[in-house]
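A quick aside before the break. I want you to see a complete sequence-to-structure record at least once, exactly as it would be stored in a machine-readable document. Don't worry about memorizing anything.
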Amino acid sequence: MTDQPSWVKIRRAFDAPIDVVWAMWTDPEQFKRWYGPMGMIVPTAEMDVTIGGTRKICMEMKSPERTMTMWFTGVYKEIDAPRRLVYTESMCDADGTLISPQDMGMPEGAPDVTEVIVDLDEVDGRTVMTMVHVGVPEGSAGEGGWNQAFDKLSALLV
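That is the input. The structure line, written in tokens, reads:
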């Protein structure tokens, strides 16, 4: 057994040029079309895609009983268009004030800040994406949410 953490790493190939997939990650209106698990929408996607720029995302799910919202904020750390995007992610409220993962019902030990790393490569007119979410364990609900989001993204790119 290893002491090294096992973070979510997902590799997908999309039937779209690299510039189109890049825009899906960096253009707020495009991002809103696919991000989040099935059944969730993204009513807010604020993105200043510059080094040190911030992002604030709201995912929302409506049911007859209530509307559940989850807010996330982060900072762009690395941008190498259209090949690499790295940003941090933390839970927050609608004003952008950080909230601990435990206050949102996450297990003890869940990190306050995670990091998303997206690498894109163009191969034969398709885009191969490798996404690593450092701080989100393999096999977690977070990994399931990413896979559902990438299913939505794939459907948009056909």
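Two observations worth writing down. The first helix runs from residue 18 to 26. The chain has three helices and seven strands. We'll return to this after the break.
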